[in-house]
Amino acid sequence: MISRTRSAVVMTMAAALVAMLALAGCGSSSKGLDLGGSSKDLTTTRALGALEARIVNADRTPAAGQAVLVSGTRAATTSISVTTDARGIIRLGSLAPGNYQLLIGAVAFRAPIEAGQVTTRLYNLGQPNVTRTDLGEMFILNGLGQTLSRLDTETGTIANNVVKTGKWPNAVAFYKGIGYIVNSGDNSIQRFNPVDGKTIDTTDLGAGRNPYYIAFWQDKAFVTNLLANQVQVLNLAEDKPVLGKTIDVGTQPSGLVVTNDKVYVFCTGASWVGSDVTYAQGTVHVLNAGTETVEAVLELGEKSNPQAGVVGAEGHVYVLCTGDYQTVGSSVLRVNARSNTLDGAPLPLTREGGLVSARAITIAPNGRAFIADQSGARIHVVDTKEHKVLRTGRNALDQGGNPLDLAASANGLVWVFNFSDDQVRAFDAGSYARRYGPLGAGDGPMYGGTRERQPAAAVAVR
Description:
Immunoglobulin-like, Methylamine Dehydrogenase, Chain H, four-stranded mixed beta sheet
């Protein structure tokens, strides 16, 4: 199993499926929109307010002519029926302060309205099985402290050690309002309530697994088991996760992403003999999420060492290849998720005086992918829309500290986790200007997961 020390070479992935939200009027923060679940209702005391919401389809086209029912749970107005305009927008004015629900088909959203507040949210009806995330709250995994910190991405404030994890936590993610922690050392998946931080249950995957990462699709969780060379399926339809099928994949599966009803598993090809490690053929195993079978295997080359990936523009999967840390540096490859083929030339990452040994990749709402290079203490930037490197070598970003991992939030910020100095920083994904930090985190921050509030609809990030 892989231990956690400050000097250890660790393979980790920053995954962030991000949403898009903007608020206008009265200087309100993203907390002005509560998507319900276990959250408390919010009420207001001012006179009149207004609501604006934009509805889009999966391909980001406006959902024109979409019927929306607005019901007030704590207001004089009990229900209003309204239809989106040609741009997919509804506007309501003179609403009494209170807590409202927007009903779109079978999907419900909760929106507390304050005086003069105009709330604009981009909803997607076309992918009902993809979870939408809440912008305001991210949980940071502290690998050495074996805890989670709670980060408000709007204000840049952190509450440390709010959740106790198991041994060697490696990833945290959310599904239908419940937190999932991948505990590599305990060979377990730990579920917790993000409101009070209490553990709900723990699922034992069996000895010798070293679970590494987790992703979700239609009440299923897919977990990479690093040492078993398998992906473990968990069925989440019941009150407690149920162990399902194990799927044989390549050597040392690390990260994985889900898109287009497929699971893309990044297999490093690494093997150890004593303290010596070799990197054979790196692969991407493509799984059919419904049938839980391998559909395709993409060979990326010896010493490629693919560890992580993100879903970029047009649904393409961008794969981060770390290299062998000695003779082969890091690069980014693009996989066409429709044809399951490599698409376009590899994008090499460079730096002065040595190889790039990148650890993690995340994607911001503007389509830029950011890569954490701990070896050079830099952040590299790739444009997934144009498939080109924007910042690398001398032009790579210096955001301070040693960036082991990073994650994007939908308010346009990229959060950098500095493992060795227990700090978190944030910068703007468009201008690269620093926004927050250094902020004191827990012991060994190494990963961030964004909390979701409403699993029935999603914001399109394709």
